[in-house]
Amino acid sequence: MNLAKSIMKVPMKQNSEQKCIVKITKSASETEDFAEEFASTLSGGEVVLLFGDLGAGKTVFAKGVARALGITQDIKSPTFTLCCEYFGKSLRLKHIDAYRLKNGDEAEACGITEDFGARGVLTLIEWPEQIESALPRNCIKIHITRISDTERKIEVC
Ligand SMILES: Nc1ncnc2c1ncn2[C@@H]1O[C@H](COP(=O)(O)OP(=O)(O)OP(=O)(O)O)[C@@H](O)[C@H]1O
Ligand SMILES: [Mg+2]
Fold this sequence. Notes:
Layout: H1 3-8, E1 21-25, H2 28-39, E2 47-51, H3 58-68, E3 83-87, E4 92-97, H4 104-109, E5 121-126, E6 140-146, E7 152-156
Parallel strand pairs: 2-5, 2-6, 4-5
Antiparallel strand pairs: 1-7, 3-4, 6-7
Helix pairs in contact: 2-3
The protein binds adenosine-5'-triphosphate and magnesium ion.
């Protein structure tokens, strides 16, 4: 299956005919590979929401996205710093962890929402449900669900 092509067919806007892509991965490296393939279909300006429980694999997914952008630095969860920025070959990656934020107002007050959707910026947000009111309308939603110690279900909508 050519995943990149099928992802590109997924409409970015929510609508009744929207289809999700579902992928089961059997290791962290498979999740990274899937994320890399997914990110290779993006061109900047996207806001990608990463939903999933603690330890689901959101940061692992972010590592694969960073690899697709040509970022060689180690991607660490920005749980305490809220936001980390990395410069890829042609895009800037903004990796946000909203776990410690109380609501959308708090996200806006600390400035992390300023370049949501900006050209040349790919934004990844872990725990987006914490800052729902500050999120732009047309986001790509990714749900990661733990099936077992090593298996995850990843849905891209
Ligand atoms: N198939 C898999 N895909 C992703 N991670 C996996 C998989 N199997 C096992 N893991 C492990 O699950 C853990 C996922 O950790 P990760 O930090 O990415 O979670 P997270 O969703 O970012 O959590 P948090 O909400 O605490 O930030 C890692 O230790 C990783 O090795
Ligand atoms: Mg994380």
